[in-house]
Model the fold of this input.
Amino acid sequence: MEVKNKYVVIKHHIEDAPKESNFEIKTVDFTLSVESGSDDIIVKNLYISIDPYQISRMKSHSSSQGAISFALPITPGEPIDGAVIGKVVASGNAKFHKDDLVLGVFSWAEYSLVKEGNILRKIESSEFPLSYYLGVLGFNGLSAYAGFFELCKPVKGEKVFVSAASGAVGNLVGQYAKLLGCYVVGCAGSQKKVALLKEKLGFDDAFNYKEEKDLNSTLKRYFPDGIDVYFDNVGGEMLEAAIVNMKTFGRVAVCGVISEYTNTGMRASPNMLDVVYKRISIKGFLAADFLNVFEDFFIKTLDYIRSGKLKVIEDVSPAVESIPSAFVGLFRGDNIGKKIINLEQE
Ligand SMILES: NC(=O)c1ccc[n+]([C@@H]2O[C@H](COP(=O)([O-])OP(=O)(O)OC[C@H]3O[C@@H](n4cnc5c(N)ncnc54)[C@H](OP(=O)(O)O)[C@@H]3O)[C@@H](O)[C@H]2O)c1
Done:
């Protein structure tokens, strides 16, 4: 059977803040069967993860592009791949059968033609919505869990600061920190997000960084005795201000630097004298470095969700056509929680 398959491409490299007009939706004839003897697998995409790291792949050059396989450059006009959950429609590979649910690196499209190597895992059954496997139970959850517990080695009662705190990773870091018994403050880009952090997610406090004139004194106000752990999602001026306010032997986990992705003029220059004399640890990481703790993360997080101790915040849009605005929206602060495209009804 032949269908029309819609997919998203970039028209050209994107060097600064992305715009919807940088993208194009293409349509191609697509066969929903595999040739005999082929080991191809055809997947109907159900949920597509929308993630900020893709912007570095869309640039003509970024130091991230050679670092790890999932960060390889995206060629204008060619399909874009990313984390997707789909259902097998047809398979020439004996390990995968029609209707299997699979999570892998597939196209930003309605259907994907994939090889076994693109599939990270099968999802055998789920008591939760499938989309959770892209966020709270997937790489966002692992980033929050491993970055916080493995890198920062937090202790109950410590003071924790999280940036982009209402986002996919940030909201989970804050919730894990509260579950451990830390004092947690988050920053986010709107009053609505601030209210969510304080009223729904149990953060001790939160502020809208866009309304603050001097981030050093803002952090001093929220942490008069200093910060033990800073979970950095944004880099730039917030990282500089956090370093000024870190306690002696404070730990900074650098998960991402989103304020720098679309602004080549913005690079954090933290006070390194503070780093030396306060003996601050600053460490970058990738979730992929922590597959050894995946099982531990997964079991604990499932329990927290089941018991209602951890809230799941998703921001869902329908249809392939909404992928450009969903992606661009990450850099405007449009999303609250994990940004997902739901194609289940398509
Ligand atoms: N190391 C890893 O393995 C790993 C894995 C996943 C994600 N990450 C990184 O973690 C960070 C968060 O990713 P996510 O998937 O959870 O995305 P997200 O936080 O759900 O979405 C991005 C959010 O970043 C904030 N933002 C956008 N531009 C900003 C700017 N110029 N300054 C400050 N905040 C800005 C916006 O919220 P506001 O309204 O609050 O501005 C936006 O909603 C990103 O830096 C990402 O690259 C790293």
